[in-house]
Amino acid sequence: MTDLSFPKLPGALPDKRQVAASFSRAAASYDSVAELQRDVGSQLLGHLAPEFVPQRWLDLGCGTGHFSRALGGQFPGSHGVALDIAEGMLNHARPLGGATHFVAGDAERLPLQDSTCDLIFSSLAVQWCADFDSVLGEACRVLKPGGIFAFASLCTGTLFELRDSWREVDGMVHVNRFREFGVYQQLCAASGLRVVSLQNLPHVLHYPDVRSLTHELKALGAHNLNPGRPGGLTGRARIMGLIGAYEQFRQARGLPATYQVVYAVLEKPL
C-alpha cells in the first residue's frame, strides 16, 4: 500500500485545523529538537542562485521564524513576510524579529496581492497541504515575473522504519503519510512555473532508542496527525512490540529515522 497516491484524496492528509493546533502547542519546544528542520532549510537556502537578491520575500510556513531571521540577515534591506497557519508559532516568532510582517494565513489561499513577491521560501511546511495544486497556483499568482518559489517538503518513504515497525504490531495508521515524489514532479511540471531543479534526497537521523524519536516528533508537533490514527493511550505490550521491531533497524550510530526530502526551485516566467 502506498502512502498517498494523489494529493486531493479526501481524508488522506490531516485536517489543517489539527495541524495548526498541534504546531501551536509545540511552539515552545520546537527549536530545541528541530535539527532536521534547520539542516533542510539551510540546504534549501543553498539552492538559491548567489546572484539572486529578492527585495520582497515570503517565508511560507515560517514556524518559529528561524529562517525568517536567516532570510532577513542574508538579504539586508529586504521586506519580509513571515506566514504560518499556527498562531502559536507566530506568537513565538514575532518578538524575535527577522520579518517586516507576521501574518496568520493558509498556503492554499495566501492573503497577499498578485505579483508582490520576488521569493517564496518554504521549508518543511507544504507537506501538510492537502491541495498542493492550489499551493502552486497561489505561488504563481503572488510571485512577480522572474520570481522564485523554493520549497522543501517530504514524500513517501519518510519514517519507513517507524511505519514498518508499527506494521508488525498492528494494522493501524501510526506514521504520517506524504505524497509520492512522482506527484510532486507532475504537479510542478503542470503549475505554469518553470522547474529549475527538483530532487528527492534522503536525510537520516539516528537515535539511541525509539522513545527519543517519538518524543522528538511530539515536541515538533509532527507526531501522528493522520485520519485513522489510533485513539487513546498506547498499551505497554504494543510499545514493547514496537521497540522490539524497530531494533531490527539498529546501526552502529543508533536507530535510523529516514526522511525523504523533496527540494524544489521553481521560477515564474517573465
Please explain how this structure is put together.
The protein is an alpha/beta fold and 270 residues long. The chain has a domain at 16-159 and 177-205 and 260-267: Rossmann fold (3-Layer(aba) Sandwich). It has 10 helices and 7 strands. It has a 7-stranded mixed sheet, sandwiched between helices. Helix 6 links the parallel strand 4 and strand 5. Helix 7 (160-167) crosses helix 10. The model is unreliable at 1-12 and 227-233 (pLDDT under 50).
Features:
Rossmann fold; seven-stranded mixed β-sheet; 10 helices; 23% strand; globular; disordered N terminus; transferase; Malonyl-[acyl-carrier protein] O-methyltransferase; EC 2.1.1.197; methyltransferase; malonyl-CoA methyltransferase activity
Order of helices and strands: HHHEHEHEEHEHHEHHE
Regions with pLDDT < 50 over 5+ consecutive residues? 1-12, 227-233
Alpha plus pi helix count:
10
Mean pLDDT: 86
How widely separated are the two ends? Answer: 42 Å
Q: What is the name of the CATH architecture of the domain at 16-159 and 177-205 and 260-267?
A: 3-Layer(aba) Sandwich
Q: Give the tally of β-strands.
A: 7
CATH class of the domain at 16-159 and 177-205 and 260-267: Alpha Beta
- What structural class is derived from the secondary structure elements? alpha/beta
Biggest sheet record: 7 strands, mixed
- Do you know the CATH topology of the domain at 16-159 and 177-205 and 260-267? Rossmann fold
Query: Can you give the helix content as a percent range?
Result: 25-40%
How big a fraction of the residues is strand?
15-25%
Q: What would you call the shape?
A: globular
Computed over alpha carbons, the radius of gyration is 18 Å
| Largest beta sheet: strand ordering | 3-2-1-4-5-7-6
CATH homologous superfamily of the domain at 16-159 and 177-205 and 260-267?
Answer: Vaccinia Virus protein VP39
